[in-house]
Write a structure and sequence with these properties.
57% of the residues lie in helices and 0% in strands. It is mainly α. The chain has a domain of 75 residues. It starts with 21 loop residues before the first helix and ends in a 31-residue tail after the last helix.
Length: 127
């Protein structure tokens, strides 16, 4: 068996210097900058969409809360009207507190006295 081996001579690449292709670098920079702009636009649109959906959900929640509060307010107004009814207050006073309606003998009429303003200086006598 006769095998022949070919031994290649290795090339020393240490001394070879590559030049920077400025046109290619410029194209790469423009592509990266364009991609970054597109990415920023997509992220901004996604953020706006997310915010719109979140605000929509909050709006629904606020509308249901408002409706519940309106219903509660209506119930409280009805309860207040019931509690301040003069007939109810009279019934509680006479039955539970054993009060009696006032008579002429047990009541006194108070009149408000109006204070007259002091007289002017021309009327007051001086010494």
């Amino acid at each position: 068996m006769d095998h022949e081996f070919v031994v290649r001579k290795q090339v020393q690449n240490r001394h070879i210097h590559r030049e920077v292709d400025t046109a290619r670098q410029r194209d790469l920079f423009r592509s990266v900058l364009g991609g970054a702009c597109v990415l920023v636009a997509v992220l901004f649109a996604a953020w706006q969409h997310h915010d719109a959906r979140r605000l929509g959900r909050e709006g629904v929640t606020l509308r249901t809360t408002y409706a519940d509060l309106q219903e509660s307010r209506r119930h409280l107004n009805v309860e207040k009207a019931h509690l301040v009814a003069p007939a109810r207050i009279d019934a509680i006073a006479t039955r539970q507190l054993k009060m009696k309606p006032p008579t002429r003998e047990t009541s006194a009429v108070l009149e408000r006295v109006t204070v007259s303003p002091p007289p002017s200086r021309a009327v007051v006598a001086q010494r």
